[in-house]
Design goal:
368 residues, alpha+beta, Uridine Diphospho-n-acetylenolpyruvylglucosamine Reductase, domain 3, Vanillyl-alcohol Oxidase, Chain A, domain 3, 2 domains, eight-stranded antiparallel beta sheet, five-stranded antiparallel beta sheet, 12 helices, 29% helix, globular, binds flavin-adenine dinucleotide
């Protein structure tokens, strides 16, 4: 169920429930259109959109779930239900951030926007010693960056890929990744301050096809890799936290241990809290500790490191988290917070009272 049909006049895509972002980008870019999709093109529209959906276009055009206009849903009692602002609007509210709790979405209708086919985007890699300065500059620059740009700092190890000088492969680095969804010639001045923070190892920021940027990270996430994510929303990114993150970067147990500090704000924050099930919108940053490994025996070490990164940010956290970045299935209540969780639980009682759809960040049906 991966068909994608684009209406370029209405700027809408009708997407089968099993489509991947590469398939959506392929069809929509033929019309110079796109919507907020994942940083890795092998993720699917289903879990990504229903959980929220953070991507390069979000500060200009909102989260993936904000672009969900309507959905066809097979419910637990085997009805095919249409959800939109006018039909079953309560269900649409829950599908915009509440995850796969309310049924199987067979069709997503998504809003599209003029993006690409070439955008100003790319990564810049700096030596790990510059991570502290990069994160401080990124924090200060983010405060009044325009919506057209969405950026992320990744404390990681240099992947063994050709544009990176071979002597750096596998060494600890700090990467800035950014995308500008506005006109190409506006990209360079928007990113000038942050770009010049240090002497880069390699600077690949420039005009590139949107689809190239959307698939840039795919080789790092092959099928079958073991992975664990843990995240928290940050109310602030103070110097003490930056210092702790830099130390944890040095202590990372493997080459695919990544500390992401994701810039939020813009269109994400302009949707009123409570308007969708995506629980919190005002946080300036999301911290995500991402690990990938190949030998199953390494799992506990990687999970421990990831949990330590997130607990190191406890003082700066809002207490909420983005469910799609949580590897632990029992974290939904804390992630959503009491008010959103109570509303989701009531909706769950309406659409899935026996909790048939429970292999997810589960919302337990509210008791009568
Ligand atoms: C390599 C990688 C990169 C990522 N990058 C990002 C990123 O840039 N931004 C971001 O926000 N998140 C990102 N994520 C997290 C991602 O949003 C979640 O992993 C999400 O669950 C992926 O959805 P999926 O459909 O691909 O996964 P699946 O494993 O297929 O689905 C996950 C769950 O979603 C629900 N679901 C899926 N499809 C449907 C459907 N049609 N109807 C109802 N429920 C459904 C089900 O509960 C299912 O168990 C990334 C994850 C990975 C592994």
């Amino acid at each position: 169920m991966n068909d994608v049909t684009v209406d370029p006049i209405a700027k809408r895509a009708s997407v089968g429930g099993g489509a991947l972002w590469a398939e959506i980008d392929h069809e929509t870019q033929a019309h110079g259109l796109a919507t907020t999709g994942g940083l890795v093109s092998t993720t699917g529209v289903g879990g990504f959109t229903l959980g929220g959906g953070l991507g390069w276009a979000m500060r200009k055009y909102g989260l993936a779930c904000d672009n969900l206009i309507a959905a066809d849903v097979v419910t637990a009692d085997a009805r095919l239900v249409h959800a939109s602002e006018t039909d079953n609007a309560d269900l649409l509210w829950g599908l915009r951030g509440g995850g796969g709790n309310f049924g199987i979405v067979t069709r997503f209708e998504l809003a599209l926007h003029p993006i690409g086919p070439t955008i100003y985007a790319g990564p810049i890699f700096y030596p790990a010693e510059d991570a502290f300065d990069l994160l401080r500059t990124f924090r200060d620059w983010s405060a009044d960056a325009p919506d057209e740009v969405t950026a992320l700092v990744n404390l990681t190890s240099a992947p063994p890929l050709p544009p990176i000088p071979q002597e750096w492969h596998g060494r600890k680095v700090a990467a800035l990744l950014a995308a500008c969804t506005g006109p190409i010639d506006e990209g360079e001045p928007l990113l000038r301050t942050i770009r010049s923070v240090a002497e880069p190892i390699v600077d690949l920021l420039g005009p590139m096809p949107y689809t190239a940027f959307q698939t840039l990270l795919d080789p790092l996430w092959p099928k079958g890799i073991h992975a664990y994510f843990k995240a928290t929303n940050l109310a602030q990114l103070d110097d003490e936290l930056i210092d702790r993150l830099c130390k944890l970067h040095h202590a990372a147990p493997g080459p695919q241990c990544e500390i992401h500090v994701q810039q939020m704000g813009g269109a994400v924050a302009r949707v009123p809290e409570g308007a969708t099930a995506f629980p919190e919108r005002s946080m300036p940053f999301v911290l995500n500790a991402v690990t990938g490994w190949h030998d199953p025996a390494e799992g506990p070490t990687h999970q421990d490191w990831s949990r330590t990164v997130i607990s190191s940010a406890a003082q700066a956290s809002t207490g909420r988290a983005y469910v799609n970045f949580l590897g632990d299935a029992d974290a939904a209540k804390t992630a959503y917070g009491d008010a959103t969780y109570a509303r989701l639980a009531a909706l769950k009682r309406t659409y899935d009272p026996t909790n048939l759809f429970r292999l997810n960040h589960n919302i337990a049906p509210a008791e009568r």
